[in-house]
Amino acid sequence: MAFDVGTPINTAFLLFILYSVQKIVFPSSSPPKEIPNEFRSGYSWLPKSHQPTVLFKTYTPKTLEPFHGRDNGRILLAINGIVFDVTAGRSFYGPNGMYGNFAGRDASRGMAKQSFDVEMLIPVDQPLDKLIDLQPDEIDNMKGWVEHFSNKYIICGKLVENDAV
Amino acid sequence: MAPSISDLLVTDDLTILLGLIAGTVFLLRTFYRPQPLVHPILLGRQSEVTKVRNPGESAVYRNYGTGLMNRFPLRPHKDVQVLSDLVRSDMETSRTLWNTKITNATLQDRVASFGTGLLRMAQLQSQESNVLLLLNDCIEFLIADLALSSHSIPSMTLAAPHLLSPVLDTHPPSAIITHAEFLPTLLELIYDAGEEGRHHTIVVVGEPSSRVMASVASKVKILLWTDVEREGFKVPKIMSPLPKPSDVFSVSFFADANGHVQGTQITHINLTAGVAGIHALFPVSALLSSLDTVVSSHSLGGTYGRAVAYAAIFEGTSFATTESSKLFHLDEGTVKQDVTDVLSAQLYSIPSATILFLKPAHLDALVDGILRDAKKSFLLNAFAWRHKIAGVSEGFVSKDTLWDRLVYDAARANVIGEGAGTVRTIVVGEGLLPANLLTPARVALSCPIINTLTHPAVVGPVFALHALDLQDFSTLEEDPVNSLAPVGPPTVSIEAKLLGVNDSAVENGADPSGTLVVRGPPVTKQLSGEELETPSGYVNVPTGESTSSGNSDDEDGWTALGVKIRVLTNGAFRVVV
Predict the structure, then answer these.
(1) Does chain A have fewer CB atoms within 10 Å around its N or its C terminus?
(2) CA of B23 vs chain A CAs: smallest distance (Å)
(3) Is B541 a residue whose pLDDT tops 60?
(4) Segment Disordered: which positions (chain B) (predicted)?
(5) What predicted TM-score, i.e. pTM, was given to this entire model?
(6) B568 CB near a chain A CB, below 8 Å?
(7) pLDDT above 60 for B437
(8) Minimal Cα distance from A21: which residue of B?
(9) How far away is chain B from the Cα of A32, in angstroms, using its nearest Cα?
(10) Are residue B451 and residue B490 in the same domain, yes or no?
């Protein structure tokens, strides 16, 4: 034995006491090497990333169509020129949902006439549905749906004609 | 021979003793750790962010306490509708404003007397006239402001003395209130302007010398403040209809970054929202109360100084201002912003200051003085500094620790005087605080230091750190010398957005960085370009991209503040230099 404090247990205790006293009397005052990303790792911490935000984009029927959700991506649909991000409602608007026809398309006519049939949709390479032949109460119905969607989902863009961009 | 197990586990009396000591030391270390003043998890999300952002802009940020759905607080209390409601009738204790010990009831009486006297003697018309307040911060400023607002006569104030001639030329007031010492200079300016046909009415605080009185031209009417108050006291008070909260009660003129003269119209709502903003700076455990004494270095001619003063009035605290807040001096020298300046407020008969509203230069001087004094006891200071820094890095600071008693209390007393023990919060505004000053300031003063961002177009602070936030990222900055301290999230009644943001960088996760625009009840409406003519007669047309020009309102009511700022991931903002 190099030194003898009587017994190994005493040595262990003594070392522990010396270590703790050293930590109390000389607290570490050097800042951490990098900013921690967890509040448990340090007081001056920063979250790793910002809150996610969606960029407001201008869509055409052709650029809107890929967001049909069949590939597990985002699901968008448009009503009255406003594009909504309905990824949160995948069960309704996803490929197997009740209203899956609307994903990636302009759903204005369908919302106005309260119908989910494919006839309500216009092919993507044609000009936008002008909705001229709709009754006033159907227009009101559509506006009510716009209101509902604004409260429930995120407005993330507007829909314009194919050649307007 | 190899030691056996029983040899290794031999115990004796020393073991028990050491065991007890080890146990005590372990418990000491575990439970005696300083607890953070605010839990760090709350500091990870200081702003509420909208989900959508426009191209080239950032999302809209609001204070986390306000949230995206709630309305902005417009007033500190539901009964405060207009300016005169800030002088609460239900508060009966007296407090000292500069050198005057006064109760709210007496203050309201003086305001009513002065208002009546002024209307009668200066022939002012409600809603037609306007009055220029050329006063240094004093109780007469507040009395005049309150009196004029109750009779719907807008007051005009200046944030800097050199704006006097442009303002006199472009917005001639119906009456001017000024100090006796400043009267000769003012008369000179009026005579030089050469508008002989115009009548001028000047109300003078103090006693002008007979020589000055003799030099007064016949077109200028001089009234003494004391005469006006006495006149109003004798006669029945004139009651004007109550102003609406959206009425403009004051116009504050300031010089923007380009040196152009800008005017901004303060309504009652702007001011009550600003007072609510100042009220929200303080944590619930340490609110402003009538036991406090507020010292401010921000002049009442500017919007921020006005918000601080009226917040002090509303809460019933004693109030005084420092020497550097005086705008109108006889001599040309400017007052240096240092410790003597901070102490100059104590020369009034107010109780010892508890809350200081200072500029960064003041804080720098204070901290420098205190730390230098503390270094005199070299060895103790080395320990004290180390322990204090360790505490701050755990989120804890207090005036009652051992190291304060040994080192820092004495240092503070040497620098600030006996009043050092009462200072409980310092709010830094009207300037940019360097990042490497924040932690030394917290150690030296051992109290919450709240860094804010202010602007002459906003009543009250625009951004403010959480009061108990002690986080410090300065050691990991790329440029530690030049970087600025974070200013925190928007205050409770402000929403903020950044323009000119690099979309691709932000989509990849970088911090949004751009120019700041804000919206909310404390944001005042600036006088548009057509209403502001320069003395040469040309209309001051705001130049296109310049965000600090007067006509910077966007279509949705966003006001550009001309500040380049960056958002951190926890929702706090930091000015980019």
Answers:
(1) N
(2) 9
(3) no
(4) 527-556
(5) 0.86
(6) yes
(7) yes
(8) B25
(9) 9
(10) yes
